[in-house]
Model the fold of this input.
Amino acid sequence: MADKVIAVADHRYRASLPIVPTQLVAPSGDLRDSLHRPLGDLRISVTDRCNFRCSYCMPKEVFDRHYEFLPQSSLLSFEEITRLAALFVAHGVGKIRLTGGEPLLRRNLERLVAMLAALPTADGAPLDLTLTTNGSLLEKKAGALRAAGLGRVTVSLDALDDAIFRRMNDADFPVADVLRGIDAAERAGLGPIKVNMVVKRGTNDREIVPMARHFRGRDVALRFIEYMDVGATNGWRMDEVLASAEIVDRLGAEFALAPLPASAAGETAERWRYADGVRGEIGTISSVTKAFCRDCNRARLSTEGKLFLCLFASHGHDLRGLVRGGASDAEIAAAIGLVWQGRDDRYSELRGSASQPRPTGERRVEMHYIGG
Ligand code: SAM
Ligand code: SF4
Ligand code: SF4
Done:
């Protein structure tokens, strides 16, 4: 038998130390990139580990027992995360999403939530603090997260049918436990809850209408996400993508839908309500067929403190290097400013076009590492 090859080990470490400018300009609360997009949203991956093995994200063949996850010493501590988050907030970030990996696997996450919830924002408005989870531990943790200051949650759920769900999470995890997690989050006041379903043609697309039927009548925004070509391990194929337009057609055949306006700047979803006035919301996130890079205000901080400017980036900016190297807040803030000002990423807009960036030979980072 051939030796086991660990396919994705060292790409995680490809990052450069950001330049600290000699003139330290203090954050103004309105930082723009080279395409004039503001920095508004920070996603923080608190762990690269997960108890699921969704084939579109962490396929079991790669992320098996031989795979080396990051050692504890590589992870940013809660104090380091909070220090960096405060600098992003000073630059204008108003929304922070904790993600991973599975964020609820990080021990004492409530402590981090409480530290982040206390951050003052640039304009004095409350920070929109949220978390994306697979829901497996949510029933147990919803109350404590809410008490610590978490505002709301997004739960990923790819099917209601137990057999399809178990196949998709590839960890034999039952759907009933996630549904109980969603109920617990609702009771704890972590709403309005979003439920994200990644749609793979031929795998779970027959669950689209049952999912809508299940959540109709509740204060839940159900969002259908096009299966994306993130990372380098999920064997993505265009023929497994079900375009949002087709998803909306299938839903429209069952329910009368009325379009809703975008809820916030940088909003990634197109949204509908039920025309008959029943509670609930439908959204589609068309990352493949209708790119939204033009409004992309998202930065991602990896589990080990590297800043990524795009979900499809292959190169990060090593903020942990600055933090652990003794840089001051003013120096790190100025370095973040310079990195964002130079940003010109718009992968999804260019995907498949003549001006698509040439492959650099660098491997794209995996989503569980930089945070979805
Ligand atoms: N483990 C948590 C969860 O599943 O909610 C948080 C991390 S996960 C990487 C964040 C989101 O990314 C999930 O909603 C997941 O469905 C989505 N995701 C992962 N891989 C994807 C892909 N290839 N295409 C579209 N969405 C994907
Ligand atoms: Fe885990 Fe979330 Fe990725 Fe699924 S999508 S493998 S739950 S990190
Ligand atoms: Fe933002 Fe990159 Fe996604 Fe475009 S491809 S929306 S720039 S993360």
In short: The two ends are 35 Å apart (CA to CA). Residues 1-9 have pLDDT under 50 and may be disordered.
